[in-house]
Amino acid sequence: MENIAPAHPSPHEYLFRERKAKDKHEYFEGDIVALAGASLAHNRIVANLMRAIGNLLVDKPCEILPSDIRITTPSANAYMYPDATIVCGRPEMADNKFDTLRNPRIIFEVLSPSTADHDRTKKFFFYRQISTFQEYIPIDSTQHFIEAGRRKGEDWEFEGVADPDGYLSLSSINAHIPLRNIYRNVF
Question: Are 135 and 170 in contact (CB under 8 A)?
Fold first, then answer.
């Protein structure tokens, strides 16, 4: 990830540029960061999530969205592209362009060695500002390991699952997904 502009544009300027850009960029209080390409393992994990969770949500008032949906904070001081997002109820969009979501419930980030630190710290810091955000799921793309972070009032509790025969529990939507389905064709 590299900065593409030395200036600190406003959120409005960022969105104007981003909607015309060929590549995706995230915005953090005036800093614009280009997103790197993803590995085959990363893409397989995201595809597996979309399939497994999408099927679980068929009769629920929630849906899973891929990484092309942008997420923003209530103050619009950050704009991010999670690898997958679950929204429940009516999606609340930031404006009439319908490409920026304001009410995610669950956010998934597939971690690589180059993005893990950024995703776990900076992005998570901004995600936590969103009141509807209930679960944060960082997924390791180099080994069987998934964490499930759950909001408990103002705090967050994390539980790790490393057993390939284990399950990822998404408590806010009452779902349990086998790790083997998430990591299908990855290892």
Answer: yes
Domain ranges of the chain: 39-182
Q: How many CA atoms does the CB half-sphere of 46 hold within 13 Å?
A: 21
Decide: 167 and 137 in contact? Cβ < 8 Å. no
CA distance 173 to 171: 5
- Confirm whether pTM is higher than 0.85: yes
C-alpha distances out from residue 25 to 4, 40, 184, Å: 9, 20, 29
25-40 pLDDT tens trace: 999 999 999 998 899 9
- Cα 15 to its chain centre, rounded Å, is 19
Using an 8 Å Cβ cutoff, are 108 and 82 in contact? yes
Fold of 39-182: tt1808, chain A (3.90.1570)
